Amino acid sequence: MAQEESTVAEQEEFFDLAPEDNRPWVIQKATGIARFAVRRPLGFFGGVIVLFFLIIAVFAPWLAPIDPYKQSLAMRFAEPSTTHWVGTDYVGRDIASRLIYGARLSLFVGMGTVILSGLFGTILGVMWAYLGKTFDAFMSMMVTAGLALPDLVLLIIAAQIARQAEISEIFSIVVTLSFTRMWGVTRIYRSAALEVRSRPFVEAAESYGAGAVRAMGKHVLPNVLPLIIVSSTLALPNAILAEAGLSFLGFGPAGEPSWGQMFAGEAREYFRRQVWMLWAPGLTIGLTVMGFNFWGDAMRDLLDPRLRGTT
After folding, report:
1. Which residue of 24, 83, 217, 228 has the fewest C-beta atoms within 10 A of its own C-beta?
2. Chain-centroid distance, C-alpha 33
3. DSSP letter assigned to residue 292
């Protein structure tokens, strides 16, 4: 009996289970966050960065000190001050305001890409693990071809088509990035779905008459969900970097404040006169990518049972 009680106590400690907690909900959540900060300091730091930029993106119109599109040639290359927090660029636009509005574009492209590619990748990957040989051969061919596509070339073509057709360039970037990214995650999710499908509880459900759709939706998909969350958090920085690279080359959304565009053109020519024209977007991109990577690593450690309890 004593041995069973000790085993239960070890399991509760391992899985962070606790007896019924009568404390207020706020205190419970604060305690959980504090525990996460102590056990995963880098993950907590990354989560703070992610939350910081999300808040900036949502409340950009209220946080930006000056209109990011306003030009003032009299204020060209102004030094950082209480009015212009990070100075001004070559046409007198406020750099801080453009950084704040640029967060909306970068996070929208990153999250939109991750959501679309993850959605279609999950559907195709789980179907690929269940359907017959004909669909398997078709998907193998499609994934091989999709992984060979040059995403940067497709992004440039999509941006040019969007400009000529007068449709949203941001939408075309999200769709193109999602199309090029979904093939890799499809293959990953298919492997995970095959592994879950071979487990005894799925085989038992199928032996009791559960159809393919029910088995996929009720048994396979919930067990693949942690992998989907982790891969999405780790893929989001890559999408942000892809948009920044496209904007740096001059094919990003025209007229929209973008971190990548702040690197291009005159920024490289005049950055010696105003060093923050180059350093500010560079540090912002680096900090954002680092935050998402730290947070994604922590989510992987928490959601993967094999890594739970490790530092």
Report:
1. 24
2. 21
3. H
Q: Which residues contact 66 (CB under 8 A, 6 or more apart)?
A: 83, 84, 94, 96, 97
Residue identified by tokens 């942000």 is 240
> Can you read off the two tokens belonging to residue 194?
């095959």
Let me know: does 48 contact 298? Beta carbons within 8 Å: no
- Please list, in sequence order, all residues whose beta carbon lies within 8 angstroms of the beta carbon of residue 202, skipping any fewer than 6 positions away: 196, 215, 219, 220
The DSSP code sequence of 99-130 is HHHHHHHHHHHHHHHHHHHHHHHHHHHHHHHH
**Distance between CA 234 and CA 305 in Å, rounded?**
18
pLDDT digits (tens, 9 = 90+) for 190-239: 888 888 877 787 777 777 776 767 777 777 777 788 788 888 887 888 88
CB 89 within 8 A of CB 277: yes
The one-letter amino acid at 190: R
The model's pTM: 0.78
Tell me the CA distances in angstroms from 116 to 19, 35, 109, 191, one per residue in order.
39, 33, 11, 20
Of the candidates 72, 89, 80, the residue with the CA atom closest to the CA atom of residue 261: 89
Quick one: residue 11, left, alpha or beta (phi over 0 = left, psi -120 to 50 = alpha)? alpha
252-275 residue pLDDT tens: 777 778 888 887 766 777 777 778
Q: Three-state SS for 157?
A: helix
